[in-house]
Design goal:
The protein is an alpha+beta fold. It folds into two domains: 99 residues, Alpha-Beta Plaits (2-Layer Sandwich), CATH 3.30.70; 228 residues. It contains six helices and 15 strands. It has a six-stranded antiparallel beta barrel with strand order 1-4-3-2-5-6. Strands 11-12-13-14-15 form a five-stranded mixed sheet.
Length: 352
Amino acid sequence: MVEFNKEYMIQNIVGLSFKPIINPEIITGMEVILEHDNINSFSGRAIAVKCNGIHLGHIAEKNNLDHERIFDELPLNGRIRGLSRLGKGEVFAKFKEGEITHCDIEFKLKNEGIELVQSFNEPVKIKFDKQTHRHIYEGKDLVSATSYINKWMKEFDSDRVSGIVANSLGVTQQEVKDFWDDGGDISAAFGTVVDRALCHYEKYKGLGKVIQDKKNLPHNKAMPSHPALLNIVLGFYLMDLKQGEVLTQVLLTNVERGLCGNADRILVLDREKKIAIIGDYKCTINCEEETGDKFLGQFATLPKNKLSKYQLQMSFYARLMELSGWNILHLETYVYDGTWKTYKMKVLPLDF
């Protein structure tokens, strides 16, 4: 029995009726090759599928969102996933008995999980590896905001502190570490959900309003359906927010210096004059209280709290935009701790 991998891309072969194939040796599971059909008179980007040197057909080009991704990685190897032939006494189009009427193939892209993302502030596209969360330009990894910030912060000594806590509680050190890790994962997941809900609304609020009006709904359809999350998002927009063009999940770069970062929110006040405000969503508590965070070097005098870390992160984004001619008026951190609060901060001067 032939087993198929769910992670592989599946495509139907089109054009089987142009040159019907009756070869009984072509069966499910056989290897195929996808290659550029450079003599095709209808398209300069046609993708041919061949099996044992026999031309089966093509990958659909019209209305196929995956066509360009596939074309950019040719040649590719795959195999026949499913195949149908016209049976005795059956009638289908112009096919004759025994000819292949349907064939789909499966194959894996060489760069599966990698997508090209357009930089907002530079005319370049960056490769983003979803699995490793790496940004790559011309074969080199770009330094992220997190990596940049970490060089200005004293590393938390998890082994030493977890050992002290474990001894004081009478439990194992691993229990303490697992407890911290699990709690951190939960907090991060919650923050990610809130962040995505806010970004989703900004991206689709136009369509959401059309649906709301058409169906006479109480809220914009781009708002979350779950009441708890709905209240959080509604609460954000009840704040006194400055008006302008809102951009979310924005990739910022300076490829010359090998730097990049994803800003949660950019409020563009004037595109022509390049004036904007950098914003960031945070779900946390006690952001003004001193923590164990200790800043190093030129940032050693910053308050030892979460807000300073957020300020440093957003200053990194601001600097990337400044290097492209933008004027960043200030930074805004939007903190949800049961209610929303806005913290306005200045852009910190960095070392690049």
